[in-house]
Design a protein that fits this description.
The complex is a heterodimer. Chain A is 88% helix and 0% strand. Chain A is an all-alpha fold. In chain A, helix 7 packs across helix 9. In chain B, the strands form 2 sheets. Chain B has a 6-stranded mixed sheet, sandwiched between helices. The radius of gyration of chain B is 20 Å and the shape is globular. The chains are: A mainly alpha, B alpha/beta. At the A-B interface, helix 6 of A face helix 2 and helix 3 of B.
Chain lengths: 273, 267
């Protein structure tokens, strides 16, 4: 009888602990979402400084945008080449290999350009932003700034935010351009598709409003999400080596999942509208 | 104008249900060097953060220049902070800026001074700490003592009324320690400022402080001039000042019975 009661009590304790663990995690997630949203609004409110002293933002554009150019261009080139190879393989079965230019361009402009750029941006610039701000917090540089009556959100967060928002759409556009070039090099000189058909079909079927503008909208939304996640994770990182390392990992994981989730949502809306 | 530039009145502060400070009263007269001493974890640095308005007290108040710090809005706190300079434990220099730009940072951010004037002022501040010749170096190229001196030049960049020092002697070699010690006193007197030093280095602190507060168990355990405290018979002060291993602050962290813990295999 006693054993039965003990098992029952242990089971109850385990279930309670399990449920309270889930509750605790949920509350922590909601709290972080709220804190991140608050930081986003404060960043917008204190953004004046980033434009009044634009050299602060320009400096960050160099670090997040210009320094990401190499990885973006090389990746775009290979993505474009693979798209052309795979596309040709399928299209030739239906006798429409001339449509390879449209396929490459639409895939890049609508989806791959903004999405892959955002994923690469999160991995290259996002982690750098999180690690830098996390270390500034660990070494008390943010506290020092506060004690000097300088607002760290205006001086540190806002310029990085706008640098990301300005850089990423430009990087996504470059990605699509270089990807198309990579596709052209595989399709025309290597496979032998007609150059005129490649470009003219692309010109005829890629729409500015439906394809290019939608791609730009996506890249702007991804830029806001990726940059803000990187900034928040850095700002919220526990001031220890382990804390900064976890924050950096979270930046990549959360940014990637957010970009893929947002892509689905945005694409659905764009299809309807 | 009151004679005390900073006053701490019946201050309590705690978090997660635990009180770190329990009704602390302190006064920091203008022009003096006042030290706050105590063991590690006694909440000395937290007191500096309360004075700077980075955290709010649970009870009581901190007044800076007659204004209650926690009642100020963000702009009010920033106005109060313009009267303060703070030297952080490890300097907290901005690693992406040179020595010159670090010292120029508060001037560029908070004033409209022309660049030519900022250049002269920065060189004067760096000269005061003996590092004018190092103005082109980056923080990574400095030794610990030099970094502390640059941070001190940055802390006094806008001639503050209050200079706060968080463990200014920690981790320094004897020469650098002597230099920092001398600088704290001489800069305080030259600027007519009030210095608040948080430290547990008895010898150096007693050398330059006009008045000392000892914090232990969340209260002011003792206070007085360095001379008075050296003579103090209070067990805690005696143990601290003379660096005795055991006393009111026990050598052993509270634990279960030694013998039974050794015999019991479970941790």
């Amino acid at each position: 009888m006693n054993l039965k009661r003990m098992i029952k009590s242990n089971l109850l304790t385990s279930i309670t602990r399990f449920l309270s663990g889930i509750g605790y995690r949920m509350i922590a997630r909601v709290w972080r979402l709220g804190a991140g949203t608050r930081l986003f609004f404060l960043t917008i409110v204190y953004s004046g400084e980033s434009f009044r002293r634009f050299h602060l933002t320009l400096r960050e554009i160099y670090f997040t945008g210009v320094m990401s150019l190499l990885i973006i261009i090389v990746s775009a080139f290979f993505v474009g080449m693979v798209l052309a190879l795979q596309g040709y393989n399928t299209l030739q079965k239906y006798g429409s290999s001339e449509a390879i230019g449209v396929l490459v361009a639409l895939s890049l402009v609508r989806e791959l350009g903004p999405v892959v750029t955002a994923l690469l941006f999160a991995g290259r610039a996002g982690t750098a932003i999180t690690a830098e701000i996390g270390l500034m917090k660990t070494t008390e540089q943010l506290s020092a700034m506060e004690m000097m009556a300088v607002n760290p959100i205006a001086r540190v967060v806002a310029p990085r935010f706008w640098a990301g928002v300005i850089s990423m759409p430009i990087l996504a556009a470059l990605f699509s351009m270089v990807g198309v070039l990579g596709g052209y090099l595989v399709a025309v000189p290597l496979i032998g598709v007609d150059s005129g058909a490649f470009w003219s079909q692309m010109q005829a079927n890629v729409d500015v409003r439906d394809d290019i503008v939608n791609g730009v909208i996506k890249s702007v939304v991804f830029a806001v999400a990726c940059t803000m996640i990187a900034l928040f994770e850095g700002f919220d990182a526990p001031p220890t080596a382990e804390g900064v390392s976890h924050a950096t990992t979270r930046t990549v994981v959360i940014s990637s999942l957010t970009v893929l989730g947002l892509d689905f949502v945005l694409t659905s809306f764009m299809m309807v509208v | 104008m009151t004679s005390n530039i900073v006053e701490i009145d019946n201050l309590s502060f705690g978090y997660k249900g635990r009180l770190l400070h329990k009704g602390i009263n302190m006064a920091f007269p203008r022009g003096k060097v006042v030290a706050i001493m105590g063991g590690s974890g006694s909440g000395k640095t937290t007191l500096l953060r309360l004075i700077g308005g980075q955290i709010k007290p649970t009870q009581g108040e901190v007044r800076v220049d007659g204004k209650v710090v926690h009642e100020q809005d963000r702009d009010g706190i920033f106005l109060l902070r313009r009267k303060m300079g703070m030297l952080f434990q490890h300097g907290a220099l901005f690693t992406d800026l040179s020595v010159f730009d670090n010292v120029a940072f508060p001037m560029r951010e908070l004033t409209d001074l022309p660049e030519s004037m900022i250049r002269d002022l920065v060189l004067m501040k760096l000269n005061a700490v003996g590092l004018r010749g190092a103005h082109t170096l980056m923080p990574t190229e400095l030794s610990g003592g030099m970094a502390r001196r640059v941070a001190l030049a940055r802390a006094i960049a806008l001639d503050p009324c209050i200079i706060m020092y968080d463990e200014p002697f920690a981790g320094l070699d004897p020469i650098s320690m002597g230099v920092i010690c001398d600088l704290i006193r001489s800069l305080n007197d030259a600027l007519g400022a009030t210095s608040i030093i948080v430290s547990h280095d008895v010898k150096e602190t007693f050398l330059i402080a006009d008045y000392v507060y000892f914090v232990a168990d969340g209260v002011v355990a003792a206070e007085g001039t360095p001379h008075d405290l050296m003579q103090s018979t209070l067990p805690f002060v005696h143990q601290f000042v003379h660096g005795e291993k055991d006393g009111p602050v026990p050598f052993h962290y509270p634990a279960a019975n030694y013998q039974s813990e050794l015999l019991n295999q479970q941790l």
